Amino acid sequence: MASSDLVTTCLSPPVHYVICKLGFEKKDTYDINNILSENGEVCWQAVTEHVCYLESDQSVDYIKSIRSLGPVCESVNLHFKSLTKEQFVVQYVLWFHWTNYTELFLEVFDVLQYMQTTEVALGLMKLTSCLERALGDVYLLVGKDCPFLLRDLLASEQLAVVFGQAVMNVLRVFIGSPYGLNLRNVLWHGFASPQEIPAKYCAMLLFLTAGLGQLLQTYLLQTKCILVHRPYVIFVSKEEIDVFPGKIDLNHETLSIAEELVKLSSFVLKTMSPFWMAALTAFKQSRYADCVILLLPQLEVGLRLLFTTTNKCPNRFLTAEMLAKHLDNEEVNQLPTVLEEPAMASEFLWDFLNHQEGPRIRDRLSHGEIDLKAFPREVANQIVAFAITLLCRFSDGDLSVFKEHMVIKPLMNCASCYRSRFHPISRLKKQVLECMKSIHLWPELPTVPEEHVQTIKGLEGNAEASSLILKISEILSELQQYTPQNCYSSDDPVNSVLTERLLIELCDMRICTLYSPRPVLEILVILRKISTQCHQVSEQVITSTELRYKQWMNKTLRSRQRHNYLRMLNSMKFLSPVLRLILVLITLELVNVHMVCKKNPSDYQQYLKFLKSVLQYTENLVTYTSPEKNKWDETMELTNKALMKIRKISDRKLMLLQLAT
């Protein structure tokens, strides 16, 4: 890996000029009283006058606007420096209530007094995140479906209705437009080092946020509307992101080694090392949100550097899409190979940052969706531990002494065997196993004594159920060659093959999740729907069985209901193996999905047809077994037709499996 000392900035020359120089070109001294009234209100008209427009189409001229607003920002910064904390609270705190996080803005005011560049950058990242969330809440006063991207939110007609278009244009000079200062993006994506973000821009956004609060109060009084804040996202399943187990404690010794690694690792740009050190300090101080906010952009920077070095394209350092499969010239991206795909970074990063069902930590932090005050240590623990493994892996020197250290080696071991947890393939595996656990509860369900059943005439025979189980056995005999050899018994194929142990063994097989092509994702959508329907059938059967048993024992069932209940018990004899068969089929499809998708289109379409027919059957099962329908005779007929169809096309299906293997 190339020396990180050679990189002095991550900003392109035009962006560096816009952020670091353009707003300092005008040397005028601007009087704060021009934009701040005696009673402490922001004079928006005086502020908006500094936004310039292109003559051609009257769109914002960002270059001229930044140059014009430079002295205004400096004046605001000096104004805040002249205030004591008490004066600031009295004059401004009321106007931050609309953000639902007043404490953050008081914190940013404190940071501006001491001018620590790293803290200013952190304050600005948190401020823009909180501001975006609050603006989204305001958007919902007027519109629906708040835009996901900040640039779209700021350009929306809905916010212009509340605040005025001229005011929104001022905001767009600072955040949300790639042609302006774009402060949010350059920080959250790790392009700006601490010393490259002028404190006066942070001060100006603090000032503008207060001004927005004043405008919003006027709007709410006029419209009699009430601003409602959306609830924060909560990490529900923390155990799913527990890559580095809690027993691997990030104690003081581990963090001290991490600080040494920051100084030595080529994964760290020297200009960015203050961010790393501040992140580790924040973790020590239990400021877990601050730690992760500081660290995530630096992981992106380090991976960009590694990407450009590995693929020999230094010109891409400012724009690299590290996890893309191909480069611009269609050559394969070598970064996953260097990262020892899938173990270390590729799947971990996709899981934690990108996959829709994953925690999407950066998205949710940067868009203000997470309560920073209650950010869980468990999540921060994962990010810090992962960062330490990257620091160890990439260095110009010999870091073996660190890699073998007793507190670092367990982290490296955990990272090396990581498997995706939030890719659709991984989620399907989890669904299948959860469904099987549900079906396994059936034998434990209470049922009426056998002597009670015998008193009901016309229900003595189980011929239909036995016939269906025989069909299932015949299908299993054909599928046995695709299942582990120790999982099949010709004496009892149903109970020897359709087991949780088989599914666990199949689900444990390694399946590539990186760069899944569209056909794979299309198939996964269908398979997940099938699994969901099967699980719903199982839960409905459990609920109905428990309820009907209670009613039977209490003798509250009418004659017709008693007959229907016994039909349900009879149907359960074949429903259980049918559902288990479908789960095994799903898992076999999953194991071979990448290979089948590479075959000719006609085979692929036949493959889809088969899956959709199974989906249709399971959807009908959900309807027939629902408490409202209770159509158990129809369920038997439906299952018989489905098994006949599966058996009829099984030869074709087996051919597809052979193609796949």
Describe this structure in words.
This is EMARD protein. Pfam families: DUF4209. It comes from Nyctiprogne leucopyga. This protein is mainly alpha-helical and 661 residues long. It folds into 3 domains: 13-223, no CATH class; 238-417, no CATH class; 424-652, no CATH class. It is 62% helix and 0% strand. It has 30 helices and no strands. The protein has helices at residues 13-20, 44-48, 62-82, 85-92, 102-114, 117-142, 150-154, 157-163, 165-174, 183-188, 199-223, 252-264, 273-284, 288-310, 335-338, 345-354, 361-366, 377-393, 400-403, 409-416, 424-439, 450-454, 463-479, 493-497, 500-507, 518-553, 559-596, 601-624, 632-648, 650-660. Helix 21 packs antiparallel against helix 25 (500-507) and helix 23 (463-479) runs parallel beside helix 27.
